[in-house]
Amino acid sequence: MMASMADSRRHKNSVGNNSNVSNYKLDGKLRMLATTEVNSPILCCRYSFDGKYIAFGCSNGDIKIFFTQTYNHVYTLTPDEGKKLPVTCIRFRYNGGKDLYVLTATYSSGHVRFWYVTSKQLGKEVKEGVELFCCDFNYNFSKIATGGDDYKIRIYDVERMTRLNLLSKGESFERMDGHASRVFAVKYHPDNEHVLLSCGWDNTIQIWDDREGHAIRRIFGAHVCGDALDMDPVYYHVLTGSWRRDNSLQVWDFDSGRLIKNVPLQSQNSTDKKVCHLYCAKWAGTDFIACGGSDNNAMRIIEKSSIQTIGTLDGLNRGCYTLDYIEINNVPHVTCASGSNIYFMSLNV
User: Residue 112: which of 102, 124, 120, 121 has the closest Cα?
Assistant: First the structure.
């Protein structure tokens, strides 16, 4: 049954013991399944492809793995090094069922690490002399791209973890064929193994061919500060979430670069005047958009067809910096984190 009233109670399936995790308000078609906490603020999260596990990257350098059937913490992936720096992005790798639970993580230390989740073993790793904030695989998982604080995109061969190319802005001041500031999101095209997008602080979406040295074109208008770049695999519509007051959630046409629409962040009859500066945004299946951010410290589910908010988690103590979405047994699930608190939800549709 669709929730008709806001739910501000702590759910009976909560598995944490921090009273702060219960400070939320749930509204619309979202249902809280469980809440819990970890011992460090969370910066990123990702479901495994089958939805069995979800990984959370923490600011203390740990990756916490939870089993989604019970919402219990089952593994911790910790690098063997002295000073551990934050985990900034997580992506699971898929290779036809073999090693199903292998993830790749970037760190602000400059490391790119492959982890075997269930054995907690570290696989390949490389280290660059920059802070890394984001990564993404191409559609056949043969390459991975990273972005960071030196404005460049690095392309690696996954099997050998050797660098294939370094993408950057050219020397011309007349052409912005690359980034002029930090890169916080990269996203490969869903059907082209060489084409990827990136964005960050310089208000551009740069479009690259990973065999070339500079961007092949750009779209102006997105100010991205987190994992807030996605591409629809059907229509190739690009979704961006910007950290700003106005027009923070936008949909773009990939082929033309045209702005298709600014997506409102309030429901049709809402009287809430608070704004949400977005840190995370993604297409949630074929029918929804999920996004979250700071200032009003909220996460929203928006229906694509009506462009209306149908579910909200707000009243959080800190901003929503990361989220992920998956369908498990045909039921939509969304999980987000705020500070060190985790919220597991389903969507009643």
Answer: 124
Residue 339 neighbours by CB under 8 Å, 6+ apart: 20, 41, 42, 316, 317, 318
Burial category of 342 from C-beta neighbours within 10 Å (exposed 0-12, middle 13-18, buried 19 and up): buried
- pTM equals 0.93
pLDDT tens string 256-266: 999 999 999 97
**Integer CA distances (angstroms), 108 to 143, 149, 219, in order:** 20, 9, 27
294/273: higher pLDDT: 294
Burial per residue of 57-82, b for 16 or more beta-carbon CB atoms within 10 angstroms, e otherwise:
bbbebbbbbbebeebebebebbbeee
Report the C-alpha gap between 331 and 283 in whole angstroms.
16
Cα separation values, 234 from 218, 237, 285, Å: 21, 8, 11
Q: Nearest Cα to 26, choosing from 2, 9, 45, 1?
A: 9
> Is the model's pLDDT at 15 over the cut of 70?
no
Two structure tokens written together for 40: 């460090």
